[in-house]
Design goal:
Length: 483
């Protein structure tokens, strides 16, 4: 091949617009888009992409969409398996590539892969450039006055705003140069990313992975974003953006999200709804900031006092929680919705995490692992930050004495019981007064609704009052340990 090429390594940036690595590569005569499936259990694959069945399902469809978009512009996606360094070096030799471009990942495993690949390819004489493509600002650029990382969200958010969130957005490239037919890759179907069982068959009713799907979802949400502060906590309403999986896989960038909101609502930071939504974009940034500066928190408590907490880790409680069979209706509805859709409302995530870690005294890492296995937005920084926040073990954490009452949470955020009735249909005929705590209902009320506790629906696996007191006692015992 006589014309030099640049390899564009797609990873957590499965889009064409506002893609810094792709945009920079287009300065060369040819580009070769590549996606590399790393070996099972490798650093590159262990933090979400190949970890859970739900995220694998999404990846299959997102790669298919990316390849379709590339082909529509005259190019195509080369898919190969193997260690990234070896695959990139081999492809560079095949194509006479003179450079490799990619957008940086900021999870511990992604950082380790970046460093190793960059060093190896440069030692082989192949120029490498990495770019900031997944966040508004990278963690080393948002520090406090002492040059230290933020551990509390509100000052971090103010610092992020001071750094600037109105950032330029790169255009959608069109057309793209063709990839030589001599360069071969595997089919996406051959990767075996789709589950062998039928549990994910319903996902397509909820999701449209890919760049176009991300924008369809976002534009639909923008119609109601001004009411976001009122609807974002309601379990029974479609009041959130549901952009998290699209952002995780990089089908839309946070720069694009902010720019689109600000174009539609120039005073977005002064409006309750749009400001609340932009803060959620900031929370995603904060999660990446925490995991970058404190990589040990992927597996360890940030607050070391919690190393002394006597977790119970009752296996029966864990299984009941996973299967939505706890006997607490709002918990069971949320966990069943997760299994059926691959996603969970953020308010529900807090409720079920509080119940598991505090009422059941199950180690937050067990819950975090289940989420990483079952969420289509299995994003390691956000998941870790969220679980440590609820458990009280992390940065900006909820106080140890904050224990969500799932009955009150259900009554407040699913006031008509629509969410519970949808996902726990065996309770659908209960009146509202009995729906949120059926164990307190009169026997005749249960009988008229066809509910038999312990038979058609479980008895609660824990007593909420007693388990709350037990958690407070456990947390009180570790208060005096040195932070």
């Amino acid at each position: 091949m006589s014309n030099a090429s640049t390899l564009v390594w797609f990873r957590q940036d499965l889009r064409l617009a506002d893609n810094p690595a792709l945009d920079a590569a287009l300065a060369s005569e040819h580009i070769i888009p590549i996606y590399i499936v790393p070996p099972e259990g490798s650093d590159e694959g262990r933090d979400g992409f190949l970890r859970g069945g739900a995220s694998r399902w999404w990846l299959h469809h997102s790669l298919t969409a990316l390849d379709r978009d590339l082909r529509a512009r005259g190019s195509r996606l080369i898919v190969r398996r193997g260690e990234p360094t070896e695959v990139l070096a081999q492809l560079a030799a095949e194509s006479d590539a003179t450079a490799v471009h990619w957008n940086r990942r900021l999870e511990p495993a992604g950082i380790a892969t970046d460093r190793a690949v960059k060093q190896s390819l440069r030692e082989q004489g192949l120029p490498v450039q990495s770019f900031a493509g997944n966040y508004l600002h990278e963690p080393w650029n948002v520090l406090n006055k002492q040059g230290a990382p933020y551990k509390v969200f509100t000052p971090y958010w103010k610092a992020l705003l001071a750094e600037g969130i109105d950032l330029p957005v790169l255009p959608d490239p069109e057309p793209l140069p063709a990839v030589d037919e001599a360069i071969a890759g595997e089919s996406i179907d051959s990767l075996g990313l789709l589950p062998g069982l039928d549990w994910a068959d319903g996902f397509a009713d909820w999701w449209a992975p890919g760049e176009a799907g991300a924008w369809d979802r976002f534009e639909s949400f923008l119609d109601d974003v001004s009411r976001y502060h009122e609807t974002r906590n309601r379990l029974d309403l479609d009041g959130t953006s549901r952009l998290s999986p699209h952002l995780h896989f990089g089908e839309i960038s946070p720069r694009q999200v902010v720019a689109r909101v600000r174009s539609e609502y120039p005073d977005a930071l002064d409006d309750k709804g749009t400001e609340h939504f932009l803060r959620e974009v900031g929370w995603r940034e904060f999660g990446a900031n925490l995991l970058y500066h404190f990589p040990q928190t992927e597996t360890d408590n940030l607050d070391a006092r919690f190393d002394h907490l006597p977790w119970r880790n009752d296996p029966d409680h864990i299984v009941a929680w996973q299967r939505g069979q706890t006997g607490i209706p709002v918990i069971d509805a949320a966990m069943r919705a997760l299994w059926a859709t691959g996603w969970m409302h953020n308010r529900a995530r807090m409720i079920v995490a509080s119940f598991l870690t505090k009422n059941c005294l199950v180690d937050w890492r067990i819950g975090a692992d289940w989420f990483m296995d079952t969420l289509v937005d299995a994003d390691l920084p956000s998941n870790t930050a969220g679980w440590q926040w609820v458990a009280g073990t992390g940065a900006d954490a909820a106080p140890y004495f904050r224990i969500f009452n799932p009955v009150l949470q259900g009554e407040k955020f699913d006031p008509d019981g629509a969410f519970i009735r949808r996902w726990v249909p065996e309770l659908a005929e209960l009146p509202d007064k009995a729906l949120f705590a059926p164990w307190e209902a009169k026997p005749d009320t249960l009988a008229r609704a066809g509910v038999s506790l312990g038979e058609t629906y479980p008895e609660p696996i824990v007593d909420l009052k007693t388990s709350r007191e037990r958690a407070l006692e456990a947390f009180q015992r570790i208060k005096d340990y040195e932070r």
